Amino acid sequence: MVNTGEATLPELAALSYMSEDSAGCAYGMTSMRYPIGLKTYNTAALREVYVDIDETFRKVPELAGSFFLLEGYSTQGVKAVEEASTAVPHRCDEILVTSYVQYKPNVAIDWVAQEFGSRLRKYLLEGSDDPQHLRAYVNYAHGTESLQEMYGWEEWRLEKLKSLKAKWDPENRMRYYAPIA
Length: 181
Prior knowledge:
The protein has helices at 9-15, 43-59, 76-79, 110-126, 147-151, 155-168; strands at residues 30-38, 67-72, 95-103. Helix content is 35%, strand content 13%. By secondary structure, the chain is of the alpha+beta class. The radius of gyration is 17 Å and the shape is globular. Helix 2 packs antiparallel against helix 4 (110-126). The chain has one domain (9-152): Vanillyl-alcohol Oxidase, Chain A, domain 3 (3-Layer(aba) Sandwich). A three-stranded antiparallel sheet has the order 1-3-2, covered by helices on one side.
């Protein structure tokens, strides 16, 4: 499926399966995301992903409710702002790819599902322009990513984020999901 055009933020959430009524937020499901930011598509890596998806769904049909997002947004506005003037990481990425592993809770396949999601992201990372540095969109993060993978590999960027966090959240109330400090 391909969707192009303009959308409001609530519409965008629905288009990317992340609204409260869509598959990505289905109540009672185990849902794990494995995001990666990319500068370009690597067709060989994508082929590995698709082959693995097909094989895994055949072997473990409980995972067949999973989906794979290839998101591309206009980056002109981001690139118009000097990179060093903001703490926002991964500003050169043109594409956001997310393997969304979803299934009815089942401890017997939890490890298979986690291995599956990690494997799909690994194919894309190995085929990326910088296979040593995962760039994971923090809002989709799985939870095993490092601070650098979520918030940027530049030390100055992490320090800037920590400083902003201390200024705007001195009581550390926003500390539960992917905390910077």
